[in-house]
Amino acid sequence: MDTPSARDPEATRARILDAALELFVTHGVAAVSVREIAETSGVTKSLIHHHFGTKEALWTAVKAHAFALYAEEQLAELEARPVPDASLLETSVVRYFRFLQQRPEVVRLLAWIHLDADEGCSEMDAELVRLGAQRIREAQEAGLLRDDVNPTHVVTLFVHACSQWFQTKAHHSGWPGIGDDQAYLDDFLRIFMAGLLPPSAR
């Protein structure tokens, strides 16, 4: 074991999180032991317990770590653009799609979260969803988006459309006429954004 790593706590935490993420998304949380995480990360079991306590706490930290970069960037943009702006929604869709496209391990993580009916993530992204829905509501009130749909449902729709594309990609890759990632994103944005236009803009 690489005991000198204990002298660099941040590097140690990162190694443990990376190893746990790799194992969790491959085998599922229940099938992975702390011993396996220790072996993969090159640290001792006691060091994992020192940094995270239980395996359940480590699982929570893994989820938070996996979504941190996306959440921080998205929150920053939502907070920086308080003026009603319909284009913010399209930008948010593209950001989430690119995030999943570049991080296949997060796609697998989401699949396990949903299979296990894990409600912990809803607490992690609650503020992001709340602020995103608030910005959509402001655009609705300004007449930029149709106002007869629930803003939180709008967020839910694009999150599901992006995550399901990647989670089921192996299945639909052989469908006749199916496009690539960019073609799907382009078509989804055409349908999604046009469907949210107010009647006067259609």
How many β strands by DSSP? 0
- Biggest sheet statistics: none
| Average pLDDT figure | 88
Query: What would you call the structural class?
Result: mainly alpha
What portion of the residues fall into strands of 2 or more residues? under 5%
Q: How many separate helices? A: 11
Tell me the radius of gyration. Answer: 20 Å
Level-1 CATH class name of the largest domain: Mainly Alpha
From the spread of the alpha carbons, the general shape counts as globular
Q: Please tell me the CATH architecture of the largest domain by its name.
A: Orthogonal Bundle
What is the domain tally? Answer: 2
Q: Identify low-pLDDT runs.
A: none
Describe the structure.
- The chain is an all-alpha fold.
- The chain has 11 helices and no strands.
- The longest helix has 26 residues, at 55-80.
- It starts with 8 loop residues before the first helix and ends in a 7-residue tail after the last helix.
